[in-house]
C-alpha cells in the first residue's frame, strides 16, 4: 500500500512540473506591451531678427550737484537771526546763513580808517605847496571818505614824484592794511552762495565758533547727479549728452537723466570707468538709490531671449517637425536676465521657455491657448 501511494505522489509531481514548465514558457512568448509616446507641450517663439538696443545696467545714489560745506574763517559768537540755523531750512541766494559777533573787529576797522584819513589830511598842506596839480583829486578823495562805508580806492598816481611822496608818508601801506581788515570783517557774515536748503547744522545760536570749524552743509535741491561705474568693455559706448532712463528700486518711478561727464581714466583696481548722470525732478532727494539703463551699441540682425534658454555649449533648442534639435548661436551681450544672440535664421522656431529634461530628439508640440467659450 505504501508503495502505491508513493507512486501516485510521484506521478502527480511529474504532472505538476509539466504544467508549471509550460506556463513559464508561454509567459516568455507573450508580446511586450506597446508604450504610448509622450509628447511634451512647449511654449514656442518665431525668430524675427532686427535691431536690438543694448542697455548697460548701473546703479548709484544721488548727491546734490551743487553742495557747500560751511566753515568759519574767523572766531566769534553765533548771533541769533530771523531764521533758525536748522536742517531743512531754505535760504535764497545772498541771504545770510550765519552772523558772528564782530564788534571787536569792527572797532579795529574803524580805527584803521581813522588813521588812513588822518594820514591823508596831514599831507594836504604839503600837496598844496609842492604838488598843486594833484591837490584837488586828493581833496576830493577826503571829501568822499565815509567812516561808515568801505574805504574808496586811492587816486591814481600821476607821476613818480607823487608816488614817492605818498608812499613815503605810509599812506599806501595804511590803505592796504585797512582793506585787509575790511576783507576779514566781511567773513563774520556767511551768506548763501545760491538758493538752496541746509542739510546739516553743527552749531546753534550762542555757540562760540572757532576759526576752521565746520558749521554745516548747504545744497541746491533742484539738480542732482549720480555716479555710476561701468565696465571698461563699454567705455567706448558712453557719450556725454546721452539720455539715460533711471528707476527706483521698486521700479514704480521712472526719471530721465543725462550723462554730463565721463572720467578720462579707468580705475586700476576694479577696471571700471566712472560716468556722472544729471537728473532733475522735484520728487527726488539726496541719497535716493536709483538704477540706470544706459543705451549702448545697437546690434543689427540679432534677437534677445532669456539667458536660461542658452545652453552651455552656446546652442539653443529649436523645433523641427515636432522634434527638438539644437542650433549653434553667437551671443554678443549678456545682461542679468537676457542674452542677445546672432546666427538664428528668420522663421526658426525656438523654445520660449526652458523645458526640464529637454534633449535633442524629444517629441514636442506647441502650446495652443484654448478659446474662451
UniProtKB/TrEMBL annotation:
Checking SUPFAM superfamilies in the record gives: HlyD-like secretion proteins (SSF111369)
Output this protein's name: Efflux RND transporter periplasmic adaptor subunit
Give the source lineage, highest ranks first.
Bacteria, Pseudomonadati, Bacteroidota, Flavobacteriia, Flavobacteriales
Q: Where is the Multidrug resistance protein MdtA-like barrel-sandwich hybrid domain?
A: 66-214
Q: Which Pfam families does the record associate with it?
A: BSH_RND (PF25917)
Amino acid at each position: 500500500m505504501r508503495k502505491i501511494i508513493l507512486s501516485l505522489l510521484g506521478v502527480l509531481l511529474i504532472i505538476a512540473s509539466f504544467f508549471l514548465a509550460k506556463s513559464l514558457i508561454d509567459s516568455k512568448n507573450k508580446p511586450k506591451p506597446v508604450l504610448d509616446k509622450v509628447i511634451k507641450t512647449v511654449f514656442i517663439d518665431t525668430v524675427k531678427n532686427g535691431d536690438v538696443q543694448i542697455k548697460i545696467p548701473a546703479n548709484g545714489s544721488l548727491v546734490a550737484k551743487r553742495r557747500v560745506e560751511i566753515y568759519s574763517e574767523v572766531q566769534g559768537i553765533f548771533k541769533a537771526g530771523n531764521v533758525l540755523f536748522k536742517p531743512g531750512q531754505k535760504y535764497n541766494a545772498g541771504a545770510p546763513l550765519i552772523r558772528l559777533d564782530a564788534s571787536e573787529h569792527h572797532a579795529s576797522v574803524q580805527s584803521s580808517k581813522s588813521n588812513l584819513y588822518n594820514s591823508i589830511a596831514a599831507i594836504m598842506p604839503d600837496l598844496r605847496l609842492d604838488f598843486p596839480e594833484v591837490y584837488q583829486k586828493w581833496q576830493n578823495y577826503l571829501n568822499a571818505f565815509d567812516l561808515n562805508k568801505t574805504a574808496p580806492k586811492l587816486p591814481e598816481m600821476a607821476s613818480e614824484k607823487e608816488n614817492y611822496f605818498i608812499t613815503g608818508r605810509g599812506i599806501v601801506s595804511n590803505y592796504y592794511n585797512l582793506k585787509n581788515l575790511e576783507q576779514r570783517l566781511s567773513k563774520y557774515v556767511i551768506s548763501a552762495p545760491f538758493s538752496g536748503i541746509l542739510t546739516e547744522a553743527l552749531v546753534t545760536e550762542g555757540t562760540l565758533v572757532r576759526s576752521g570749524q565746520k558749521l554745516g552743509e548747504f545744497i541746491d535741491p533742484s539738480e542732482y547727479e549720480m555716479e555710476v561705474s561701468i565696465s571698461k568693455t563699454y567705455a567706448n559706448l558712453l557719450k556725454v549728452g546721452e539720455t539715460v532712463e533711471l528707476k527706483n528700486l521698486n521700479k514704480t518711478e521712472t526719471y530721465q537723466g543725462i550723462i554730463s561727464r565721463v572720467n578720462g581714466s579707468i580705475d586700476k583696481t576694479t577696471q571700471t570707468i566712472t560716468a556722472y548722470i544729471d537728473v532733475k525732478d522735484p520728487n527726488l532727494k539726496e541719497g535716493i538709490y536709483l538704477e540706470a539703463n544706459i543705451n549702448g551699441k545697437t546690434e543689427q540682425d540679432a534677437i534677445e531671449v532669456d539667458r536660461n534658454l542658452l545652453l552651455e555649449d552656446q546652442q539653443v533648442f529649436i523645433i523641427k517637425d515636432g522634434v527638438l534639435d539644437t542650433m549653434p548661436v553667437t551671443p554678443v551681450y549678456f545682461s542679468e536676465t537676457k542674452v542677445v544672440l546672432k546666427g538664428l535664421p528668420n522663421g526658426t522656431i525656438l523654445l520660449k521657455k526652458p523645458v526640464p529634461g529637454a534633449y535633442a530628439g524629444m517629441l514636442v508640440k506647441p502650446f495652443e491657448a484654448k478659446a474662451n467659450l
